UniProtKB/TrEMBL annotation:
Span of domain ABC transporter: 12-243, 260-505
Key words, A-Z: ATP-binding, Nucleotide-binding
Pfam families per record: ABC_tran
Keyword Transmembrane in record: no
GO MF annotations in UniProt: ATP binding
UniProt cross-references to InterPro entries, sorted A to Z: AAA+_ATPase, ABC_carbohydrate_import_ATPase, ABC_transporter-like_ATP-bd, ABC_transporter-like_CS, P-loop_NTPase
Superkingdom of this protein's organism: Bacteria
Protein name per UniProt: ABC transporter ATP-binding protein
């Protein structure tokens, strides 16, 4: 630790921090020190104990053992209020916002009383501009995309001039340009002496940003390093303890018939500020992965809601699944046609947090295998949950835990596994590898490619362009509720996708002969 050699103590030092959940040691005698102005990465596979450690530092959970030193003095951080009083700010992986309140109101309620609404509004504009984090103060949070919600969390912290800023997967829902803005901001903050503890599974950005990294595995520190001195591949191998391979492409397949056909789908915006969908047409055939790229907030969640039946189209013929018209059918009817859906928000939308994994299988497996004559077959549900856990390498802290007890990436594997194991004819998945580690991302991508290889159609809505280039056979880009033409993946370049994302392809004459 740097503390021993530098003349002044580090800003924060953790010594022997442990956290026990029943038999599980989520943190096992962790030592970690961060100097002023240091950008320090906390790395580790899903379930390694990263969130647990930073929640301890932010006063959300109490450690079972160990000490925290702030500028050399022992401190007890009993709550987030105490953490903030010390100068610790945190941006969480799961957002904690009030849907019905506006952006400015959400920020004001979380700050101390001297932050009046008008003061927040005034500062919000400055901060948003300075950091490239565009936000409209009067928009209700429920109308915002995940990316925009995360911006609120980041701005909320920055308004408090933190001395240590903790960011848990901050770029998962940002566009590459927004992420680059954020890095510039973080560089500036660090140059001004603010320390940053940065959790990310994106190792290239860790290499771009951080000078120090601590790697956790199984709750223990297994090493510290300068991430610039190693390749992303080497760091990933250290994290999971083994080399991570590439996704094997499926056997080249001839698309075999339409599994999803969308014709001229238009839907008004769900609320004042949501995105309307404009004449969307899309074809996904058996045996292929179709990618939908785009910047958050351009209609992805509205498209997902329309495809899944959470919102209904005006005419049934607008959407066909496996050849059957279903534009006005609800989600259960669409599941009965052989479709499966994985929404972006895993906790709350895709999984019920306080229910056990076995109970969470009922969300989409209500038919046949886990119920009979209206009765739930609990043992069958448990067996099903177990087989998902096994096939998708879901690491659980106990047998059949509540969903909220899983780390973010492990819950994602469970939710995707729950749908894939049904062998749907059509799978529509929104942001499949959000917050999952390199090993788990590979597992999920491979599972999607394999599903298509077995003859299903897979529609992947993703902000991760590299992911789409790796697994999609065809791709379209969504921008302001309109979908670009669907093209074979090899016909796309990153530049062409970028222009479509910005809605500028027509200006540059890149597409659409009329
Ligand atoms: N409330 C809880 N009760 C029981 N076990 C828990 C609880 N919260 C976390 N765990 C377990 O503690 C371990 C560490 O989880 P943690 O969320 O810290 O991992 P992580 O490294 O942040 O993972 P990810 O990258 O997936 O977010 C996991 O095995 C997790 O299942």
């Amino acid at each position: 630790m740097k503390a021993d050699v530098s003349s002044s103590p580090p800003l924060v030092a953790l010594r022997g921090i442990s956290k026990r959940y029943g038999d599980l040691l989520a943190n096992d005698h962790i030592d970690l020190a961060i100097d002023r102005g240091e950008v320090h990465a906390l790395l580790g596979e899903n379930g390694a104990g990263k969130s647990t450690l930073v929640k301890i530092l932010y006063g959300v959970i109490e450690p079972s053992a160990g000490e925290i030193f702030w500028e050399g003095q022992p401190v007890t951080i009993g709550s987030p209020v105490e953490a903030r009083a010390l100068g610790i700010g945190m941006v969480f992986q799961h957002f904690s916002l009030f849907d019905e309140l506006t952006v400015a109101e959400n920020i004001a309620v979380s700050l101390s009383d001297d932050w009046t609404l008008s003061r927040v509004r005034n500062r919000l504009g400055d901060i948003s501009r300075a950091y490239g984090l565009a936000l409209e103060p009067d928009r209700a949070v429920w109308t915002l995309s995940a990316g925009e919600r995360q911006r609120i969390e980041i701005v909320r912290c920055l308004l408090q001039n933190p001395r240590l800023l903790i960011l848990d997967e901050p770029t998962s829902v940002l566009t590459p340009q927004e992420a680059e803005h954020l890095f510039t901001t973080l560089d500036k903050l660090a140059a001004d002496g603010c320390s940053i503890l940065y959790i990310s599974h994106k190792l290239e950005e860790v290499r771009r940003l951080c000078r120090q990294a601590t790697i956790l595995r199984g709750g223990r520190v297994i090493g510290t390093l300068d991430p610039r001195a190693k390749s992303a591949r080497e760091i990933a191998a250290m994290m999971v303890g083994t080399e991570i391979g590439e996704v094997r492409s499926g056997t080249p397949h001839e698309p075999k018939g339409s599994m999803l056909e969308v014709r001229d789908l238009s839907l008004s915006a769900p609320g004042l500020h949501g995105q309307s969908l404009e004449a969307i047409s899309l074809l996904a055939q058996a045996g292929e992965v179709v990618g939908i790229a785009g910047v958050a907030g351009n209609g992805q969640s509205e498209l997902f809601a329309a495809l899944s039946g959470e919102r209904l189209a005006a005419a049934a013929e607008t959407i066909r699944i496996a050849g059957q018209v279903c534009g006005t059918s609800n989600i259960d009817s669409r599941r009965r046609l052989g479709a499966a859906f994985v929404p972006e928000e895993r906790l709350g939308h895709a999984a019920a947090p306080t229910h056990r994994l076995s109970e969470n299988t009922l969300i989409s497996h209500a038919a046949a295998e886990v119920s009979h004559s209206g009765f739930i077959l609990l043992n069958a549900a448990k067996r099903l949950a177990q087989s998902i856990v096994k096939s998708f390498d879901v690491r659980t802290p106990e047998p059949d835990p509540q969903a909220r007890k899983l780390s973010g990436g492990n819950l994602q594997k469970f939710v995707i596994g729950r749908e894939i194991i049904r062998r749907p004819k059509l799978l529509v998945v929104d942001q499949p590898t959000w917050g999952v580690d390199a090993g788990a991302a590979r597992l999920i991508r491979q599972a999607l490619v394999d599903l298509a290889g077995e003859g299903s159609a897979v529609v992947v809505i993703s902000q991760d362009l590299d992911e789409l280039f790796e697994i999609a056979d065809k791709m379209a880009v969504i921008h302001q509720g309109r979908l670009s033409p669907l093209r074979g993946i090899t016909e796309w370049t990153k530049e062409a996708v970028g222009l479509e994302m910005l809605g500028e392809s027509q200006l540059h004459g890149a597409s659409h002969a009329v």
